[in-house]
Amino acid sequence: MIIHNLNPTIFHFGFFQLRYYSIFYIIGLIIGYYIILGIVKKKKLKLDKDDVMDYIVYIAIGLLAGGRIFYFVFYDTSTLWNDPLEVFKLWHGGMSFHGGVIGVIIAVFLFSKKYKINFWELADITVIPIGLALALGRIGNFINGELYGRVWNGFFCVDYTHNEYLNFLPKQCRYPSQLVESLKNLFIFTTLFSLKDKKLPKGFLFWLFVTMYGILRFLVEFIREPDKQLGFILGPFTMGQILSSVMAITGSIALVFLWKKR
Predict the structure, then answer these.
(1) 2-3 and 158-159: which strand pairing?
(2) Cα-Cα-Cα-Cα dihedral of 137, 142, 143, 146, to 10°?
(3) Exposed e or buried b for every residue in 57-74, given b needs 16+ CB within 10 A?
(4) Contact 29/61 with Cβ under 8 angstroms?
(5) Helix, strand or coil for residue 158?
(6) Closest CA to 229 of 62, 107, 76
(7) I need a surface site. Which of 84, 124, 152, 223 has the fewest CB within 10 A?
(8) Helix axes 239-261, 204-220, angle to 10 degrees
(9) CB of 176 closer than 8 Å to CB of 2
(10) Distance (Å, rounded) from C-alpha 169 to C-alpha 152?
(11) Do the Cβ atoms of 142 and 182 come closer than 8 Å?
C-alpha cells in the first residue's frame, strides 16, 4: 500500500500558488523545445531558435485552449451553459487531453502555414516530446490526488484518506492509475523517439502517436475512476474510452493507408 500524503503546493504567497503540476508541465515544454530544436537542425528545416520558441508558444496556447474548451463541452456541459466564464478560471482545474490534441493540431497547422513548412513533417516532430510532457503531467496529477484509480486492494494500491492537503479524500485504496498513465506516455515517447531517424512516410509518426495513445488510454481507463459528473457513458465504457477509441480507429486507418502508399 502507498500512503499518499503529498502536498501539491510547493509554496504560496497570498492568492498565488506554485504547484508541482505547473512545474512539471513547464519542464515538459522546456524539454520539448530542445528536442524539437535538435530535430529541426538535423532535418535542416528553415527555423532558428527564436522560431522554435515561437512554435512552443503556439503549442502551449493550443494545448491550453483546446484542452479547456473540450473539457467543458464533453465533460462539464452544465457549467458551460450556467457559467461560461468558468472556462477562463484555469486555477479551478479541468482539462481534456483529447481537446488538447485538437488544439495542438490547429496550432501546428497555423504555424506551418505562417512559416511555409509541410504540416505532416512538423506534426511528426511535434508528437515526439508530447509523450514525455504528458508523462510528467500525470506525475503532477498523482501529487494533486486527482484522476485517481478505481477501488483496488492490491499491493501497490494508493490510500489518500489521510492526506491533510487534499480537499476531497477518495475512500478506500485505489489503483495508481496516474502512475500507470505516466509509464504509458513514457513508452509512447520512447517508441517515437527511437523511430525519429527512420525513413517513414510523412505523417506516420503523428498517426502512430494517435493510434498508440488511443489504444493504451482505452485500456488504462479500465482502472481509472470515471469522471463523477459523467460516470459510465456506454455500458462499461467511459467518455475517455469512447474518445480514445475514435483516436485508435482513425489512427489505425491512417497508418495502413500511409504504409500501403509508401
Answers:
(1) parallel
(2) 100
(3) ebbbebbbbbbbbbbbeb
(4) no
(5) strand
(6) 76
(7) 84
(8) 150
(9) yes
(10) 15
(11) yes
200 in Cβ contact with 255 (< 8 Å): no
Domain assignments of the chain as residue spans, ordered by start? 2-261
Tell me the one-letter amino acid at 186: L
Q: Are 80 and 72 in contact (CB under 8 A)?
A: yes
Q: What is the C-alpha to C-alpha distance for residues 85 and 81, in angstroms, rounded to an integer?
A: 10
Query: Could you report the per-residue pLDDT of 204-251, keeping only the tens digit for each?
Result: 999 999 999 999 999 999 999 987 767 788 788 998 899 899 999 999
Strand partners, 234: 237
Residue 144 CA, distance from chain mean position:
16
Residue 146 has which C-alpha cell?
486527482
Residues 2, 159 contacting (CB under 8 angstroms) = yes
- Structure confidence at residue 258 (pLDDT): 93
Q: What is the pTM of this model?
A: 0.89
Long-range contacts formed by 11-17: CB under 8 A, 24+ apart:
17/91
| Short-list 22, 5, 198, 202, CA closest to 112 | 202
